[in-house]
Amino acid sequence: MDYIKRFLLVGIFSAILICLLLFIGASSTYAADEEYMWPTDGEVTDTFGTRGGDHDGLDIAAEKGTDVVAAQSGKVIRSDYSSSYGHVVIISHDNNDETVYAHLSKRLKQEGETTAKGEVIGKVGNTGHSRGSHLHFELHKGAWNVAKTFAVNPLPVLKMGMDMLDTKNKNNRTSEVQSFVKSEELEAEKDEENITYTVENGDTLWDIAQAHDMTVEELKDANNISSSLIYPDQELII
Predict the structure, then answer these.
(1) Domain count within the chain
(2) Confidence of residue 100 (pLDDT cuts 50, 70, 90)
(3) Does 224 share its domain with 132?
(4) What residue numbers bound the domain in which 149 lies?
(5) Exposure check for the chain: N or C terminus, fewer CB within 10 A?
(6) Which of 165, 77, 163 lies closest to 114, judged by CA?
(7) Coiled-coil annotation: which residues (predicted)?
């Protein structure tokens, strides 16, 4: 009987171990499948969060007619023309993410169709509210909506998907991403370094400049003001 019990226990533990290994393997495969490839070949000209936080995607400048591919496999849930996006394709993915491909010159996928990762879904264009030929790409961690409440910065997942590119394009993309990351870091450092002073009754620009070892002109330049008039409770960058 003890032998049978030991045999059953070994069998149970073996089954649990196999299930765990299968789960880990499936999770790893799923994570790899979630990586996004660059949707087109071009130059990054604008990133997420610019324009006062109103830019909800990534702009990639390219010649009109350049292929635009699905960054990940999925189902096309929208393929139409809007006054803002111009010709646009939106794809829903198995992980519930949605990606947007806007300002296209041509749409090659229709609503309801499925698409494979890397499949051409359209061509770069300059339609809708656009200045110059480029692809506007968005990533949403949830369903797209007008307020774009689920929009996130696509650069991190595109960085993970860089192994999908050939060596030349990979180097170009790495350089572009590093450049933007460095730029964002410098802006953050600049913001952290900015010290503000709240104007009090009786203060003058000369008094404030002298107290902070600046000239009046430097103080004006830092705050983009031309007049010498200041008012109580005004915030000045020092």
Answers:
(1) 2
(2) very high
(3) no
(4) 43-188
(5) N
(6) 77
(7) none
Q: Hey, what amino acid is at 148?
A: K
User: How far apart are alpha carbons 92 and 74 in whole angstroms?
Assistant: 5
2 found inside a domain: no
Cα–Cα separations (whole angstroms), residue 47 to 13, 50, 58, 106: 50, 6, 5, 23
The helix (run of H) or strand (run of E) holding residue 135 is: strand 134-140
131 and 164 together in one domain: yes
CA distance 72 to 35: 7
Are residues 89 and 160 both part of a single domain? yes
pTM (predicted TM-score): 0.58
CATH for 218: 3.10.350.10
Q: What is the mean pLDDT of residues 143-160?
A: 86
Query: How many CA atoms within 13 Å lie on the side-chain side of 134?
Result: 16
Query: Which tokens hold the place of 135?
Result: 């692809």
Whether residue 82 contacts residue 49, with contact meaning beta carbons closer than 8 Å, is answered with: no
State phi, psi for 10 to the nearest 5 degrees.
-60, -40
